[in-house]
Amino acid sequence: MSSILAESWSTVSRLLGLIRFSHTVFALPFALLAAILAWQTPGISFRWQDLAGILLCMVFARSAAMAFNRWIDQDIDAQNPRTANRHLPAGLLSNAAVLLFTVICSIGFVLSTLCFWPNWLPLALSFPVLVFLLGYSLAKRFTVLCHYWLSAALMLSPIAAWIALTGRVDAPPLWMAAILFFWVGGFDLLYACQDADFDRQKGLFSIPGRWGIPAALKLAAASHLMVVLCLFGLWWSAGFGMIFLVGMAGISLLLIYEHAIVSPKNLSRVNEAFFQVNAVISLGILGLAIVDRWISPV
After folding, report:
1. Which parts of the chain span the membrane according to its record (predicted)?
2. pLDDT exceeds cutoff 60 at 6
């Protein structure tokens, strides 16, 4: 019995490693921020089941998309020295296990939208949203816009949370979506620079592979400049105060630092920029918004 439990726990641990569960921190804070602002909207009351629905949908949707990505890309990953030790190429998980996990998470995502009932929109939109999320995994095979397909997938999180709670779309979640679009697209460009030579050799579509690393870094910088502009839009549309405005300066400095440690001749700190700095940015925006609302409630 103990051996069965140990093997089960080992499989679960490997699945969590497969999907990089910790990376949920990139989009989840924006979904939670959208929910917090929605609950402050007249006529929208807090329900625990709505909070549970947001958390479950975020976890299931991202897990399904990431597991599918690892499954569909396993042959490519096996040929790339940087990714050859991932779970499927390394034989740590079976195809059947990853596919089953993808199906279970996909079903879990759809069922989790029932938490928002009697609002039927989340359930009705769950399937097309899921198809779009899974479709990202194929994008690198036919479009250099794959980086922004990823960001478009993540930008759905604050819009979806707002629709689930209010049944409509307003300015604040759209500004949050714009922040996510340019922020994620920019840092995915930085991350993709590591594989520029490999993508070029294998005929894969990526901006670093097709246009070169210097062009990719410039586009990433332009995307992150747009993040700062969109933060102003969120500040204005949500009615935030001085705390959020001052905090935006800190977010801007983090974005500048992210680009300062990465250059065409030195990509050794890409992972630091990708994992550490971006986690601080997403959590920082959520924290600033909460403190701003707490100090200066609407």
Report:
1. 21-39, 51-72, 92-114, 120-139, 146-167, 173-194, 215-236, 242-261, 273-295
2. no
